[in-house]
C-alpha cells in the first residue's frame, strides 16, 4: 500500500489559483491540479478531487474534515492551508491519521491589522454611508450636525485575543492615537505590556470599559459566539466593534439588534457568517455597519508571501520533513 513515505511525483490538489510564481516550484516536484474556477469547488466536487492526492493546498472556504481525509486516502501526507486561521480543518482528525497541517502566519499580520484599523475608522466616521451620499448626488451642504462620529484618540482600546494580529493592531492604535489598552488573553503578555502598556482583563471588563473593541481570537469551540447578546449588552452605547477574525465569533443577530437599538455606535466587519453574506441581510443594510468581503490579507505582499509559505509547507510535508509553519 502507498502510504506517507515520500513518493517520486506526488499528486497534489490546489483548490484555487494562488498569486505569484510559487506554484511553479510545486510543479517541478509534483503532479499538480489547480481548481480553475473563481468559485470554490462544491463539497461534492472536492470529495471527487481529493481522491488519491498526497497533498492538498486548501483555502479557508474548503472544509477538510475526517470524512474528506478518509475519501482522500491513506497516502494523504499533508494539508497546507492558504491562511493563518485553520478552523476549516479538523486538526485532530489529521493528527490521528498522521497528516501534517500547515498554515501561513506572520506574513499577513500587518495587512490584517491595517484593515482592522481601517474598519475602526470607517465605522467611527460613517465613511461608507457618507461617501455614498456624495456618489448618489445627495450631498446638499456642510452640516454642523451631520455625520457626527466618535474619535479614538486617548480612548480605550479592547483587544480580544492578544496574538500576532491583536498586538499589531494595538501597536498601531496605541502608538498612533495614544489609546489606552485592555486585552484578553489566555496568559499574561509581559512583553506586550512592556511595549504598549495595557492590562489583561476578563472579557466582561474589557467590553464594559473599552470604547473600541477589536476581535482577534482564533475560531475554536471556546470562541464560537464569544461576542453574544450578553457580551454586546455590556458594551458602551458609544462603542465600536471590529471583527477581522472569523464571523462565527460574533452573534450576528445580537449585533443587528444592538445596532438597531443604538446600544452600540457601530461595527466594522471583515468576516461574517456565512460568507458571502446576502445583500438582504440586515447587517449589510445597516447604516451603522461596514462590511468588507474578507480582505484582511488581500495585499500583493501578503498573498504572495502566503503562497510561498503554503508551497514550502506542502513540499516539506510531501517529503516527510517538518513544515515551515505547522499547526500539528
Ligand atoms: N480577515 C482576514 O483576512 C484574516 C483573519 N485572520 C483571523 O485572525 C485570527 C488571528 O490570527 P493571528 O493573530 O495570526 O493568530 P494568533 O494565534 O497569533 O492569535 C490568536 C490569539 O487568540 C488567543 N485565543 C485563543 N482562544 C482564546 C480565548 N478563548 N480567549 C482569549 N484568547 C484566545 C490565542 O492565545 C492567540 O493569542 C486567525 O485565526 C484568523 O481567524 C487572520 C488573517 C487574516
Ligand atoms: O489567513 C486567514 O486566516 C484569513 O482569514 C485570510 O488570510
Automatic annotation (TrEMBL):
Catalytic activity: (R)-glycerate + NAD(+) = 3-hydroxypyruvate + NADH + H(+); glycolate + NADP(+) = glyoxylate + NADPH + H(+); (R)-glycerate + NADP(+) = 3-hydroxypyruvate + NADPH + H(+)
Domain D-isomer specific 2-hydroxyacid dehydrogenase catalytic positions: 12-325
Gene Ontology CC terms, in alphabetical order: cytosol
Protein's UniProt keywords contain Oxidoreductase: yes
Gene Ontology molecular functions: glyoxylate reductase (NADPH) activity; hydroxypyruvate reductase (NADH) activity; hydroxypyruvate reductase (NADPH) activity; NAD binding
Record-listed E.C. numbers: 1.1.1.79, 1.1.1.81
Domain D-isomer specific 2-hydroxyacid dehydrogenase NAD-binding: 117-296
UniProt keyword annotations, A-Z: Oxidoreductase
Broad EC category: oxidoreductase
InterPro entries given in the database record: D-isomer_2-hydroxyacid_DH, D-isomer_2_OHA_DH_cat_dom, D-isomer_DH_CS, D-isomer_DH_CS1, D-isomer_DH_NAD-bd, NAD(P)-bd_dom_sf
Classification via Pfam families: 2-Hacid_dh, 2-Hacid_dh_C
Membership in a protein family: Belongs to the D-isomer specific 2-hydroxyacid dehydrogenase family. GhrB subfamily.
Official protein name in the record: Glyoxylate/hydroxypyruvate reductase B
Phylogenetic classification of the source organism: Bacteria, Pseudomonadati, Planctomycetota, Planctomycetia, Pirellulales
